[in-house]
Amino acid sequence: MHRFTRSSSIKTLLQSLALVCTVGWWMSACTPRDEEITPDASATLRLEADTVLFDTVFTEVGSVTKRLKVYNPNQNAVRISEIKVGGMGASAFQVFVNGAAGPQLQNVELRGKDSLLILVKATINPTAQEQPFLVNDSILFLTNGNQQQVKLVAYGQNATYYRNNYSTAPGEVWTSAKAHVIYDSVTVPAGQTLTIQKGSQIHLHKNAKIKVLGTLNVEGEHEKRVVFQQVRLEEQYRNAPGQWQGLEFLPGSQPSELRYVEIKNAVTGIYLLAQGDQVPRVTVKHAFLKNMLQTGVLSHGGQVDLINSIITNCGQYTFSGQGGTYTIYFSTLANFSPDFIRATPSVSFQEGSTPYQVQIINSIIWSRQEEELDLQPLTANSTIQIRNSFVKTKKFAGQFSEPTLQNQLNVDPLFRDAPKFDFQLIKLSPANAAGTPLSGIAVDYENKPRDAQKPDAGAFEVDY
Length: 464
Known about the structure:
By secondary structure, this protein is mainly beta. It has 2 domains: 46-156, Immunoglobulin-like (Sandwich); 159-425. It is 6% helix and 43% strand. The chain has 2 helices and 41 strands. The strands form 6 sheets. It has an 11-stranded parallel sheet with strand order 11-14-17-20-23-26-29-32-35-38-39, with no helix packed on it. It has a 9-stranded parallel sheet with strand order 12-15-18-21-24-27-30-33-36, with no helix packed on it. β40 and β41 (422-425) form a beta hairpin. The longest helix is centred in the N-terminal third of the chain and has 25 residues, at 6-30. The radius of gyration is 32 Å and the shape is elongated. This is Lipoprotein. It comes from Rufibacter sediminis.
């Protein structure tokens, strides 16, 4: 039997307190320094950038999400008392930190030498302004009494929006006052005309298209081209193919004309579909088609006149006609395709439900593949004429090498910088003065005068 005296009880208590202190000290000593939060006022954050800049953001559409990294350069952890958007709930900007949405987050801990990823999104409300306008705010960080900030800047753009398979009104005109944003499709009904004026910007969402059963007249000018492209304008989307469907000209549509246009980043830029004697016809002048997931111009039995135009960077063909009637004058079909591993020739004509009639004059069909021309099959009902042109072909070289045709087969036209889509000819280009005058075509793609006696082949006159 043990007896506990007062002195032994005190001794036991002191031993217990000593043990608690020892354990507390040991636990404190074992806390990693990068997890130990410092209250030091000099422990500030290092911000990846002083500004997060958004390219044009359409009202109602919202932006892609931008990323901002925040670094803790200190050995110790810090507690960020507050991360907030200056305008709070009234701001066009929203932040997300560790899955939590702002506009204000509190007591965010960041270990020593670690980083934090902040996601920022812009959604801008419509205004009455027609021109792009500036929207500003900032992200504020409060750490140990220090306030730091990153500016937020976006350019808002009001637009006219087309939803629910919109059909145009009789005589409808689109101006350049606001951008035009198409959500699904716009249809030009039979017997009606949609006119798109110079300088207009047309933006289409994924799978969106313009379907023409009537007439589409695009009235661009050299300095004020009409542009058809995707909705997203941020850098990573700027040249990405396949972001919208394309322009479709369907059976029964009346002759349409596209002048001074840029069509880019679609699945197929221009598509024509004939049915019996209902043959759509499209005249394309001074156009630049690029970055198509499949084909620049695809026609099933239609009629296309391509003049002073350029088509490049298509996953399959720059121009494909399956039956139909085609004239290609003073154009450059140069399918340099940095975005694709292409297995098809650049230009293809085949007999569909009807034969084809093709005339190619003063043009260039060129790229990296050994064979850039495909003609299958060629029966007595189909005809093709190529003259005063540059064509990369071995399979059909004998067919187009007759001296009277004045073609230059498998001869490099010497573009200024084809991989960067600069198809200007250098001064020593063999395409210089290789063309023949054509009635009614007095200027090139850039509106420079064509030589009246010996024009250059391709879309451009040599730039002296």
